[in-house]
Structures are given as C-alpha cells and as structure tokens.
C-alpha cells in the first residue's frame, strides 16, 4: 500500500544501538515529480521538479507524509504540469492523479516544533550588506568561490550576488539609515558644531570626516558622523570651505551652524573662506570668530613631536638599549636577575615604542628612566651589552619626560572622557602654558631650547582658541568670569586686562544676538510654561525692576557654586532653563563646542590617518556609504543593548 511507506516499521523504530535505521524504497508515484533535499541539519524538504516549490517532508524523526505532495499534482496547482484545455482537441484530457489508499494513516505527534520560515532572498541580501558594512569585509567577497560554496551549503536556492549587487545593497542600507539620522537631527533644539578630520591616502587624495556635535532635548551631548568626502586637492584654500558647505547643504544646517574645528594645516585664506558660512547664513555667531583652526589633540601631538625631535639622539640610545633586552630571551633573563640583585623598586615593564604613536615613546622613556640603575650595570652581567647611556643621557631623558608628562595627561583626558568639554581643556592648556613659562625662566640650555619651541605653538593656540575656551568657562557656574580673570592675569601679565575685556565683550555680544533671535513658535519646546499668565510675568518684571539687568548679568553676579568633583554643568542648565530662558540656549550651544576633531582612539597619532588602498579603489560615494553606515549601525546596536540592560535592571529592582 502507498500509505504504508509513510510510517516507520517496527525495525525503523528500534534504537540506533540495536539496529541502524533503514527506510524502504519509495514506491509512490509522487516521487516521479519530487526530489528531497536537506535544507538544514535534521530537516529535509521536498522540491517539485516542475515549479521548484518546496514542501515540508521531515523534521528530525517526524515525516510529514506525501498527501500534500499528491494534492499539488492531482489538483493541478503546479503551473509546470500540462492540464486539460478546451481549445486543444488533439490533446486528450489528462486524468488527475488520484491517491489510492484504504489503510488508515498512522499519525505522529511532536512537540515544540519551530514554525517554518520561508526563504527570503531580499532579506538575505540585506543581511549580507549589513555584515560587510559592520565588519569592513571587502565587497568582492560575495564573488569568492569559498563564500559562494558556504552560502549554498546553507541555502541551495540562494541566488549568488555580484560585486555590483552588493555595492548597491550597501548604498541602499546607508540611505535607509541616513533617513533615521536626519529625523533625529530635525528634532534637535539647538545649533550644531562641526569637526573636520582629514585623512590622507597613497594616491594623494584627501578624505574629510565631518562629525556633527550637539546637545539633545534631554541636555545630553551627542555626536553623529555626517559625511566622508573625497577631496582631490586637500591642500587647496577651498578644500575646507567646500567640505563644510556641502555638509550644511546636504543636512539642512543653514542657520544652525555654530562652530567649526579642524585638524588640517590650513592657510589663513582657507580659514577665512569658512567664516562666511558661520556669520552670513547664521546670525549671532560673532562674525565667524568660532572657527577653531587648531584641534587640541593635533596641537598636543605637534608639541610632543617637537619634544621627540629635540631628543631624537638620546631617544635612539634608549631604544637600542631596550631593544637589546626585549629581543633576546637570555638578555631579558639577565636583566631581570640584575634588577632583583640591585633591588630596584620600579614595577615598570620595558617595551619598544611604536614610532607612529608618541605616547608609546613616552612610556618607553619613563620605564627606562626608572630602570636606569639596571642599565648602568648591565654590561657587567651581560657581555653582549656594550654601550649603556651616560649620566648626561639619563638627565636629558628626565627632561624630555618632564615635557611629555603634562601633554600625555592632557591628551589622555580625551580617552577617559566620552565627550571632553572645553572647560576641561581650558585648565589643561593654561597649565601647559604656565609650565612652559617657568621652564623658559630657568637656566638649563637643553630645557630652554625645547620650551621655546613649544611655547610658540601654545601661544598660537591661545590666540586662536582662548575666546571659545573662555566662553565655555563662563558658562560653568563654578567659575564664570572669575577664573578667566585669574588665569589671564597669570598668562598675559600686563596685557591681561585687554584679553579679559575681549572675552567679556564677546559673551555680551553673543547674548545680545540671542536676545534678538525670534522666539520659537511652540513655547513648550524649551519647557516653557503655557499657563495664560505671560502678561503677569511682564508685569512682575516691570514693577520689580528685573528688566534693568539682563539674564547674563544676573547670572554673572550670582555667587559661584562650590567646586564639587562630579558636577554636571549640562544638568545644571537643564534645571535652570526656566530661570534663564535665553541664556540657557546660548549655554547649550557654547558647551557643545568640541575641542578635538580627532577620533578618541587616535589622539596620540604623530601623522594624519591614511585611508587604506582598498577603499581608495572604490567610488567616493561607496566609501562614504560604507563608513557612515557602519558608524550608525554600531550606534544603533549599542543603543539597543543599553536599552535592554536598563529594562532588565528595572525589572530586577521591581522584583526586589
């Protein structure tokens, strides 16, 4: 009987230990029209030879039977099989296949079976595009024989995709994510600050990474990568302004741009070309003064580079000594034994430096300096060690470390803080300025030569950025103008009064421009009160004389807050935005100004980053799509994980 083959016989139901499973030869006519293929472990499906439609056949020990396969043939639902037509007399009508069975079918029950998920080619292509974007796989991998074979082993019916296919899929993913980012930016109540990070390439093409920085409606500082633009002539005076103009146009930032910072060595003409983008289209931006030509990370790296250049001869001696110890196991054993004999208390571990990362050279010098006693005696324990550094060499190493240490600590702040504020770096730059001034006042010619070179660059940074840094300090209720007055008196001496007045005038001018801006149509967007008593508020101001003093002057006249360690300046403004409705808007924009254009994990780079050869071989639009989409997708994953963790913690607290 046909139905007899659809169930296991007694032999087939025995355990594998007693007898191997054997199935009867399939005799049903239905197998003339179907083949069986494994689609995943322990799961097989029947595929129609005519139309390639698939049907369930077996899932583990369960066999689905053949009745549904017979219906596919007998009822004429298969489009590939010939059927009777009225206008063809030459073809006799076909008799549909009718299953014959008088034996009741045995049914098997299974539990917890997963629902069948139909194969979706488009979904698979979308996931491949996301995989390539998130893990930076080469687009050509979809054409590699190994990848094609692997995918077909998972799903035989997957249609292979070409380089052009996956390139289009990646761009489509980018465009989809871009719409979400644009929607987010449209809801931002304040202005935007841009940073431009320039990359080079072996083809002399430049790539500009443009990141937008802003404070959201919850008073949290945020940033989004907006563009990765290929610039064929990165040294031209128009490169910066063209990149900024393109970003402003593409992301609809007209009237919303507040400041621009970059890490590219640009001429004064190039900087001047940017200013109109701030002051013409964006009223209230101090005539374009908020263009920051010196990224703080690049400034510190440049200072460190000067220090290392001055000490390159002695640094080579130290590097050779460290190399002697670290490149031979026997040499290192002798070094450790000698250290123990001399009872040197240092726990520093020697390591060779990566000369593209100045912090590794600093760490190498610090470790070697603490172990100089071991190096000085090493030639007695290790006959292969010939030229230990002299006492003068070690004195120069200590001098180099004294210059590099404050730079290292300041740059490390960029790594330890997710969004380092201008307030933080006001202190760091001021401290560096003071240290260099003391070094110049000394008598050591070696130290004096290094300090003079560094101070020239620090002075330039102050000229370009002191207004921005100082305004951020003024917006901190722990410092206000008092810290500006104190620090400027130390830095500028007799000229401090003029520089203090520049900051005071600038902050008042900016506030006046904010006062002149039209009020938002929706007064609740900033947390304003809509209680029908606006006239009453006006009456109070008129009768109490509060209108004689502006919000800014009221704020500056109030007592400074205590300097607590964990103070959140943004949260303070969030709590006081009703008290200072206009000043809080200005504070939000000022406190969103970034101090560094470099990615946080590249603050110690000695040279600009370089785009890899593979990406430079792609179209500029594809490069932008791959890099931006990766950033956005990873942010989305991190946000989802954070939300899930918060939900789990809330559930745990509730249950507790």
UniProtKB/TrEMBL annotation:
InterPro entries: hAT-like_transposase_RNase-H (IPR025525), HATC_C_dom (IPR008906), RNaseH-like_sf (IPR012337), Znf_BED (IPR003656), ZnF_BED_domain_contain (IPR052035), Znf_C2H2_sf (IPR036236). The keyword Glycoprotein does not apply. The keyword Protease does not apply. Residues 79-114 are annotated as: Disordered. GO terms for molecular function: DNA binding; zinc ion binding. Residues 83-92 have a biased composition (Polar residues). GO terms for cellular component: nucleus. Pfam families: Dimer_Tnp_hAT, hAT-like_RNase-H. It is found in: Nucleus. Homodimer. This is Zinc finger BED domain-containing protein DAYSLEEPER. It comes from Cardamine amara subsp. amara. The lineage of its organism: Eukaryota, Viridiplantae, Streptophyta, Embryophyta, Tracheophyta.
